[in-house]
Amino acid sequence: MRRANKRIANGTTAGLAVAFLSLMPLQAAPALGSTLPACQKPVYLTFDTGHMGVAPLIAKVLRQHQVPVTFFGANEKTQEGDGSLGNHWAAWWKDRGAENHDFASHTFDHAYWRADLEGKRFKIRPSAGDNAGKDLNWSTADYCANLNKASQRLEAMTGRPTLPLFRAPGGKTSPALIQAAASCGYAHVGWSPAGFLGDELSSQTHSNASLLKNALKNIRSGDILVAHLGIWSRQDPWAPAVLEPLIVGLKEKGFCFASLRHHPQYSKLVSEASKTPKQP
Predict the structure, then answer these.
(1) Residue 50's domain is classified under what CATH number?
(2) pLDDT band at 18 (very low <50, low <70, confident <90, very high)
């Protein structure tokens, strides 16, 4: 998901968060998974890529609170470096792999579905890459290739096989696009209504305090939650201002966090895919 008129997120909240987290000692990243207690009231926290400015802070919070997440990766424009899946951020992704987080495709070029076309083709508008902002005419093979390119890049950086899942940018799909992705082994993952954590919304109309309050009030067991590794347009950054109190608050309410590999809608597909490699 992305919105227009993007600006680099900054402000007092970010400064305080950086100052606070910079005081925390860096520790070896513990592996998530088998050491965690059984999750009886799960929620599924997911992150899409973004400008990556808050990615190190998000990683510290997840590590501190031992929260496993699923990252959906696209090679988006970043505040620094050569894209969110570029070489500049490769070490960051490698560390997340060592922590046993999970990864899935967000299309390599953050490619928005715009419309179905005749002949089982699609109008696609990437927001990243050489064709950013252009309307393209893609076949199923073209779309699958872009899904696979993101998955393969994530696997190369993290050392972990990606899940057979994808999230279309903006959550924009059609039945035909879902079928096209399924033909090359991918199931689409959206998010629950209460799981839209609001980090893309204007900070003038949706304060961090109100977003946190609504999330803690409305999230239910089984919900898929979505946030981003940096949103250009939000002046008062959502992460880490909301992330840590949200994690703490949900745990206090009896929730626990799990990867999408354990979601009942996707666990069988993940298990089967682990035995059958994706088609190139």
Answers:
(1) 3.20.20.370
(2) very low
